[in-house]
Amino acid sequence: MSQYPNYGQTQQPYQGQANPSNPNPQFRPPVAPSPGGYQQTSAAYPNGASNQQYMQNNAQGFSGQQQDQSYFPPQQGIQPQQQHAMGQPDMAGLTNQMGGMGIGGENAGGYGAPSAERPRKKRDRHAHHTIEQPAGGSQAFDGMPQGGGGGPYANQFANQFSQGAAPAANQFPVAASSYAPGSTTISTEPPPQQPGTPLVGMPVQSSQGRVDPEQIPSVPRSRDVPAAHFLEHLYPTIEQHLPPPAAVPFVAYDQGNASPKFTRLTLNNIPASNDHLASTGLPLGLILQPLTRLQEGEQPVPVIDYGDVGPPRCRRCRAYINPFMTFRSGGNKFVCNMCTFPNDVTPEYFSPTDPSGIRIDRMQRPELHLGTVEFMVPKEYWAKEPVGLRWLFLVDVSAEAINRGFLDAVCEGILNALYGDSNPNDEDPGANGAEKRKLPEESRIGIVTYDREVHFYNLRPGLSQAQMMVMSDVEDAFVPLSKGLFVDPVESRKVITSLVKELPNMFSQVKSPDPALLPTLDAALAALSKTGGKIICSLASLPTWGPGRLFVRDDGKMHGNDAEKRLFTTEHAEWKRTANKMVESGVGVDFFMAAPSGGYLDIATIGHVSGLTGGEVYYYPNFHAPRDTLKLSNEIKHTVTRETGYQALMKVRCSNGLQVSAYHGNFLQHTFGADLEFGTIDADKALGVMFSYDGKLDPRLDAHFQSALLYTTANGERRVRCSNIVASVSDGAMEGMKFVDQDAVTNIIAREAASRMVERSLKDIRNALTEKTVDILAGYRKNFSGSHPPGQLVLPENLKEFSMYMLGLTKSRAFKGGREPTDRRVHDVRMMKSMGPTEMSLYLYPRIYSVHNLGEQDGFANEKGHLRMPNSIRASFSKIEEGGAYIVDNGQVCLLWLHAQVSPNLLEDLFGPEYTDLQKLDPFMSQLPVLETHLNAQVRNILQYLEGTRGSKALTIQLARQGLDGAEYEFARLLYEDRNNEAQSYVDWLVHLHRHIQLELAGQRKKEDTSGEATALAGFAGLRAPYWN
What is the mean pLDDT of the segment spanning 622-639? Predict the structure, then answer.
């Protein structure tokens, strides 16, 4: 039945040809428009000048030319046996520099690894492929791939290699990981030496006693190489066994396994028993981002409607139909891949099967060949009648909001979110209404302002202006409007626009100093209790009026002692009660909180409401209106226009032998085992799921996982979004180490640490993170690395950058030592619990680009329409050149750092001819001017690219001029490879880890804590596997 191809053999979509069902598979990052009449391909500068005029000596920079040579060494004409020895450059020179520490390499399933015998499977249980495959095919999740190595790209183009590799694929050295080319210090495991072939990468002992920072694993390089690769290639979700790095844009081709954008497993090959997992020290977990955004070229998630019958489900475990369920008895029964229960197929869903057991209508049913689908559900899945999403804006009009310009910025953001750049005088939503409508047609919006009183507005379209109704008694919240509170934003555009523009003037004469926030939230809950919805609330000062009034809890005396953790949570019963009621009513809250004077806002209490309901807190410490207005406006727009669902429930199911042990994220769970409840959930929210063993897995079968999110869409449809992911099972843990997802492991550990903030001191958590890192690396060194000299630090191939991410975690605002404002620490902790993998990766290690060293073609589209990005540099001041200019982006803020001796020519080309000195620049600038210069267009294009590859925070630049701006301290904090944030440098951190690994191997490892702290840490199984019980 050629109509239903075997996914293990399907190579057509990955040979540079268009996929018929996916006509535009190439990812094209957005490119900023050129100035009028300006040709981007013309000479870089007048009189033929180039970027070299900015720097006299760029030899020490991280130049693109050097990277091209080291990233993609030519491989033509090299036989596979010879490539084993040529996959890495001269590693002997590296280990000579390592001294007593010595860094050796280990290939956990890289290109040079010998073939592993594929475990035998039971009878085929897969709906997506057959077990038997011709030689050279890529076997999906049946133990090991056919090639045996299982490196990140080893089998993606297996059939192409057998016929002669495509040029793009042939750029990758066979013996090296594509994520970390040969120039990194972590070499692959040396293969058996061929006669007459020098063995490159052999560990060498030396006596120099120094570590060269250039040779330790590089996070920028681990991102740049796969980023270049996935500009030209798709990511096939079955044929590939290891996802791309989280910070890398890619186009996924769904083959029945969900895209890594929706789900990421920590181990894509799972040990059969808990003892084997414990030997690795790794957590077994899953990162879910169910409503994540898709890129251009990716197929939208299909929506399937079964009418009143509902989607087919297993009668025993209630799992939804998916590609891994098998059909028997000629199609009359389907066997659940979770619990193996045979279910009867209903007559309306019946279809005959072919001789191999595959339904003949399989390719016509998305739920049988795609990993992520959505089902429309009947009324039995409804908690209340679904309607379009109700948006309610709660606007702080107290004195602080008015005086600091925060109210003006919020009003600008509301209009930007609802109407964008469309003509405000065009009141007719007729033929062009679809272009102007930013929200789904069924959505409705309302506006409420508050200070000591709560003001409701009638926004009906027939009115000449909005009508205000005041609720002055905040002790007993109610809604004085029955009609006109929620309106169609297009139909009532004139009324809404005039009201929002007038709000700053309306309250400028009568300024109330104290906002009554909790009564306002209670009134908003009363307005939304029948339908559910989303609240967007602004706040500029501590709410000290009415019920639920708050006080300054952080007096500075609790920092650094056990009482500090009380500041990280709320003890206010009324706020907790309101948050619980909101979740029950299907209401979520996003807060936009500004501290113009750097004051205390008690984010621990107020943010508890958004955290429990599935919302988010946008925090602006030291808000300054000219500088931060654009960022605030864009983030309000992003919040309103991103995909959002409400009244949401989630359930995660897994195969027999495994069970869910914990969830980590922002949600409500009444009792363990109950469904997770969200007031709202959006495209930027993710959560972590931990699994434990309740038996032993069968290595002949795969392990399956399914997440099901029941929610109401913004246009009023009740749906279930199902994502399915499969992992192979092996007898030991060695195979699992070959398929470790570094980003998923880091995410799980970060979420677990964040959830411990209210239980453990910050010092305990930092120590536990260090011990967990040692456990994982020592477990690998002890059990899987083979024989290496004791003086060498051996890192797993797929965890080379893991230690840097863990160092970044201990240096983050959430966990760093030293004094940190409580609000900022709590904000980052709660944000960390709901971050997606991309945002988390950037948060733990920023991306830094050298502006003064840009090549002439950098920042412009190549001949295929892909933006040519420069290579990023390491987060260390040793990489910062005198006279340089750098973009630093950690997904939360984007700094433009300018050296004190920066070239006047660069300033003129970047900001305009009138700017020849740093002091002439506007310190409150938030975006670059549009100029007809080559450099200006390059940087604007790069910034626009960065804006499309981040989380929920808008990208606006903040100047950090050396010696002039306070943002320079933030720049120094983000150089995570240096000694800062009261933590070690990257090199010292590796030496510290290596010393403790040696002690562990010698059986002499002791914890660094005193006996009292060790007792406090006893609950952290992160000190030893299993993980943080």
Answer: 93
If we measure between CA atoms, which residue out of 500, 676, 518 comes closest to residue 591?
518
Whole-model pTM above 0.70? yes
**DSSP characters over 304-341:** EE-TTS---B-TTT-PBP-TT-EEEGGGTEEE-TTT--
Q: Burial letters for 437-462: b for 16+ Cβ neighbours within 10 Å, e otherwise?
A: bbbeebbbbbbbbbbebbbbbbbeee
Which residues partner with 850 through β-bridges? 886
Distance CA 1001, CA 781 (A): 8
Q: Which amino acid is at 830?
A: R
The pLDDT tens digits of the residues spanning 769-814 come to 999 999 999 999 988 887 788 788 899 999 999 999 999 999 999 9
Whether residue 824 contacts residue 835, with contact meaning beta carbons closer than 8 Å, is answered with no
User: Which pLDDT score, from 0 to 100, does residue 441 have?
Assistant: 92
How many Cα atoms sit within 13 Å of 224 on the Cβ side? 24
| Bridging pattern class, strands 616-621 and 658-664 | unpaired
Alpha-carbon distance of 776 to 796, in angstroms, equals 10
- CB of 840 closer than 8 Å to CB of 746: yes
For residue 492, what are its two tokens? 């009532």
Give the C-alpha distances (Å, rounded to integers) separating 5 from 141, 331, 704, 765.
17, 19, 22, 50
Hey, which residues does 342 pair with through a beta bridge? Answer: 335
The radius of gyration of the chain from alpha carbons, rounded to an integer in Å, stands at 29
Choose among 889, 879, 900, 912: nearest CA to 958: 889
CA 895 to chain centre: 20
Phi/psi region, residue 840 (left: phi>0; alpha: psi -120 to 50; beta: rest), is: alpha
Say how far apart CA 268 and CA 238 lie, in whole Å.
Answer: 11
Max Cα–Cα distance, the chain, nearest Å: 90
What distance in Å separates the CA atoms of residue 1020 and residue 768, rounded to the nearest whole number? 7
> pLDDT tens digits, residue range 857-876?
999 998 888 899 999 999 99
Which range, 49-53, 237-241, 891-895, has the best average confidence (pLDDT)?
891-895
CA 76, 79, 85, 88 torsion-angle sign: positive
Contact indicator for 291, 681 with CB cutoff of 8 Å: yes
The answer for residues whose C-beta is within 8 angstroms of residue 36's C-beta and 6 or more apart is none
Spatial separation of the C-alpha atoms in residues 259 and 239, rounded to whole Å: 12
Q: Which domains does the chain have, with CATH numbers?
A: 318-366 (2.30.30.380), 390-420+440-641 (3.40.50.410), 846-975 (3.40.20.10)
Nearest in space to 419 (alpha carbons), one of 435, 398, 443: 435
Query: What does the alpha-carbon distance between residue 750 and residue 808 come to, in Å, rounded to a whole number?
Result: 11
Mean predicted confidence (pLDDT) in 554-559: 73
Provide the mean pLDDT of the chain. 79
- 190 closest CA partner among 286, 268, 299, 88: 88
Q: Is 775 exposed, middle or buried (0-12, 13-18, 19+ CB in 10 A)?
A: buried
Q: Establish whether the linkage from the previous residue to 33 is cis, with ω within 30° of 0.
A: no
CA distance 719 to 377: 6
What CA–CA distance (Å, rounded) separates 590 from 583? 13
